[in-house]
Design goal:
single chain; alpha+beta; Rossmann fold; D-amino Acid Aminotransferase, Chain A, domain 1; 3 domains; 6-stranded antiparallel sheet; 17 strands
Length: 389
């Protein structure tokens, strides 16, 4: 059985959310797995209790989902963590207990959470084929690092080690007369737009570090559209029925006018480049890019996913943010194991969830509970050598 844990019933929420769970259930049926959806608050996993949630029965008359119980079988059930970010906020404490219980009882649970961004950066920086694709990054430990970094770079980013959607990030630029300008479009619920001298910047940075840990990172002069908007790319990857990484989608993200953030939930626009048709080729050419650049993105995606998988063998989904500078250099600067599904087309969303079901089948068929780490580590996708395009 494939058990998906999420924050609400599969027939609740937006039509896109309903489509995602329908595609997951239909994909599971194709590979011979029954499908059950549960929430962290519905039923604990005490020994002898069953799963209680929504069971897929789309092949019979009546509702596609029926609320009912199912027996608990740790040796045969695979648990997919399908919590959305809003779900995590609602079930923060219950969710952690639920996942911990499932793992304790021997369930194979995917997609695992990853460490904070500073740890992930160190993983990738230590890889001989990837370190040259990472922006220069420091672990922010004291305000004087910013002063030193600004002696080398005119523009920097302050990024929290955990978070998504461009939240709490600050763009820092050195201006005239020993002043520094700070911009934060989603800064703790407000918009930040201030200029400070060094004394007050030092005080501000000290207060910032008391809120949460931060990274300090060079700004990449990203490609821009003919209208001047920044552009980067999201590569969405999922492991398939053979346990190998598959690129589900390549999505261009364009910042809103006058914005520094390309994130969709920060007002950015998205464009699917997964299918290279005449329209997409023309759009790429408007940026000075060509079809072989999509191959570079795929290669980077496979390489990064492989490194992350080597540390987290059960990893099954990842979203990778890739940028190309105006000088033609490629960068990888963010990665997310809960990649946003809002930026996928309907067809890409169905393909994504169908592939997730295939990966669940791979886990179900191939893994004894004592073999998880050794077997999955051997299956790390070996990407082709990265080439600069």
């Amino acid at each position: 059985m494939l058990v998906a844990v999420t924050g609400a019933g599969p027939s609740q929420g937006s039509k896109r959310r309903q489509l995602a769970f329908q595609a997951l259930a239909q994909g599971a049926a194709k590979v011979g797995l029954s499908m059950h959806v549960v929430t962290p608050g519905v039923r604990s996993l005490r020994t002898g209790q069953g799963w209680y949630g929504w069971r897929w029965q789309g092949n019979v008359l009546g509702p596609a989902w029926r609320l009912q119980g199912a027996s608990v079988t740790p040796q045969a059930d695979v648990l997919y963590d399908a919590m959305y970010l809003a779900d995590l906020r609602h079930y923060r404490h219950t969710y952690r207990r639920f996942i911990a219980q499932a793992r304790t009882q021997g369930y194979v649970v995917f997609n695992p959470g990853l460490p904070h961004k500073d740890v992930l950066y160190d993983w990738l920086a230590g890889h001989p084929d990837l370190h040259m694709y990472l922006p220069v990054t420091w672990h922010l430990s004291n305000p004087h690092q910013v002063e030193q970094a600004l002696s080398r770079y005119m523009r920097l980013w302050l990024k929290p080690v955990y978070g998504s959607g461009g939240r709490h990030m600050v763009y820092l630029e050195k201006t005239k007369n020993q002043m520094w300008h700070l911009t934060g479009e989603r800064f703790y619920g407000n918009r930040l737009d201030i200029s400070l001298d060094w004394k007050h910047l030092h005080q501000w940075l000290t207060q910032l570090q008391q809120r949460r840990p931060y990274l300090l990172q060079e700004d990449i002069s990203l490609l821009r559209t003919p209208k001047g908007s920044r552009v980067d790319f999201r590569v969405t990857l999922v492991r398939n029925q053979r346990g190998l990484w598959q690129v589900i989608a390549i999505t261009a993200r364009t910042a809103a006018p006058q914005s520094l953030l390309t994130n969709f939930h920060a007002g950015g626009q998205v464009k699917s480049l997964t299918i290279l048709n005449e329209e997409n080729s023309s759009w790429l050419q408007s940026l000075g890019m060509y079809s072989n650049n999509l191959a570079t993105m795929r290669e980077l995606g496979f390489a990064v996913a492989g490194v992350l998988q080597s540390h987290e063998p059960l990893l099954g989904l990842v979203g990778l943010d890739v940028g190309r500078s105006e000088q033609g250099r490629w960068f990888v600067y963010d990665w997310n194991v809960r990649p946003g599904r809002d930026i996928l087309t309907d067809a890409e969303l169905v393909e994504c969830m169908t592939t997730v079901a295939g990966y669940a089948h791979y886990l179900h068929q191939n893994l004894g509970r004592t073999q998880v780490r050794s077997m999955l580590t051997r299956d790390v996708h070996e990407s082709s050598a990265l080439a600069a395009h």
